[in-house]
Amino acid sequence: MATMKCILGLLALLAVSAWTEAGVVKKASSDKNDEAEEDLTVTEQLEKANNKLRTLTPVSAMVVCGLKPHGKVYIPYVIANHYSSQELDLIKRGINSFSYSTCIRFFPRTNQRDYLHIQSLDGCYSYVGRQGNDQTVSLSRQGCIYYGTVQHELLHALGFNHEQCRSDRDQHIRVLLQNVIKDQQYNFNKINTLNQGTPYDYDSVMHYGRLAFSKDNYNPTMVAVPNPNSVFGTARQMSQNDINRINLLYCRN
């Protein structure tokens, strides 16, 4: 008999790459800059699509629930009908990637009350964790139709926040608020997160890049510590740590 598993807590885990897809998948919509954009990291894709990497203000606590028959967590979704067939195929590839390495099973909604509604709105964004009813995941046709970006926004919906907001982030990055656009400083708020014993991950698909929300797009808003030359925020897909965290949170009996 199916049981309901609910997990309380706001998470700021996450990492990058593990899925066998190599690099970022090319944007499906027709655009003169497609060839250049396929080389962008997830952070760069989000920044270009959202102009200022717009995200929703984090909530202090979330409830992430799903039916869990046979050890699988099933989450219903609906995709709006305004995507092209190519875009739809790419979005579904991102959705289905979770089933290859985790117990998460996204499935087309029938009559479920709570579900994810994937649609092309203003930018790439998602609420963090389950909100209930018709829950928006925005994947704009203008810059968000990438494999890694689909994974990024679905990870938010699963309850994961940005890596640089982790409770232990100060041991790994130094935030330079003086270089951050003033009304975007909340994106660097540290959160009391459940890290599940997993390491901080510079390669997380949820980690912003060094110039995220920079006032002049030249002076960095974050630097790595203790080694300032360490690279972060360059992910194009989920990392093994991202996958491990999903499995730790959802897939243990």
Automatic annotation (TrEMBL):
Recorded GO MF terms: metalloendopeptidase activity; zinc ion binding
GO biological processes: proteolysis
Cofactor(s) in the UniProt record? Zn(2+)
Q: Per the annotation, how and in what number is the cofactor bound? A: Binds 1 zinc ion per subunit.
**So what EC number does this one have?**
3.4.24.-
Matching SMART domains, A to Z? Answer: ZnMc (SM00235)
Signal peptide boundaries: 1-22
Output this protein's name: Metalloendopeptidase
Q: Which organism is it from?
A: Larimichthys crocea (Large yellow croaker)
